[in-house]
Amino acid sequence: METPAHSAAPRDPEQTRGSIRRFIVDAEALPSPKGAALRLIDLARDPNASIDETVRVIQTDPALTGFVVRAANAARFGGIERTLDLKRAVVRVGMQMVRAHALALSMIREHRQTRCKRFDYNRFWTESLYTAVLMDELAVRYREFRPGEAFVLGLLASIGRLAFATAAPDEYAQVLERAAEGRVPLQLLEQQAFGFDHHELSSVLLADWGVPTELAEVVYWQHDPEGGGFEPESRPYRLAGILQLAGGIAADSLAPAAEQGGSGIVYLRAALLELDDDDIAELTREGLKELREWLSMIGLPPLPTKAH
């Protein structure tokens, strides 16, 4: 049977990862951690590293310090006394989330512009932060998640888009131009152009940066949780579904008015997660309020006043 034009033919994940590895090796430039983020990744690989060493690294970066303290006082820790003590904040948040914050801040600073003419840098990071905030909100509802885990996934789950724009700016500009026409989904156009999509590229990059394999696997299958071979109602399956929902809401909410409301997957995934319209409306409203505060702290452009 011939594969429909808008459907991806089945692919072997190991072959796909091999293609991604070759792409990474051949790339002249890729998003990569710098400064405090790089030192924190190195510390994570040292079994003898102490929390005091971690705190000293964080203290070299005022923005990262603010990120960690704010995260430690976020809603998911609502039953715990607020703190300004950095060491206590690091313990509360966990090293996985600290490294994720450092990675994001590092790449926001280092990649203020790309050569990819169709890639909207500010919208990319705004959408990534919004996805992270929504994941954080959802983690309160689905309490099987460890603190910080959901935020990490949302923040870095689409880093492959930035990697494409950085490593292959001209080719990716053509992909984005075709995607803007709306006839073929972005991930299928990426697969046609590169042999893999940004979800799959994100997964490999995160694994290289020390994100646990289980979470990297969730990122790999975020566009198709049912296709990942996860056990029904397992943590990875639930995480992949929630990541798909949060990413869909963020993309739809931040899209130009003419493009909003077109993601049917949001409604389908919400139904599977037993969330009704009121739940989604509240999630969106609270998420946007939190997002505005994050954007102000990081120095990204504020949301338009009519963003919903």
TrEMBL record:
This is HDOD domain-containing protein. PROSITE patterns: HDOD. It comes from Pseudothauera lacus. Residues 30-225 form the HDOD domain. It holds the Pfam family HDOD. The lineage of its organism: Bacteria, Pseudomonadati, Pseudomonadota, Betaproteobacteria, Rhodocyclales. InterPro entries: HDOD (IPR013976), RNase_Y/CdgJ (IPR052340). SUPFAM superfamilies: HD-domain/PDEase-like (SSF109604).
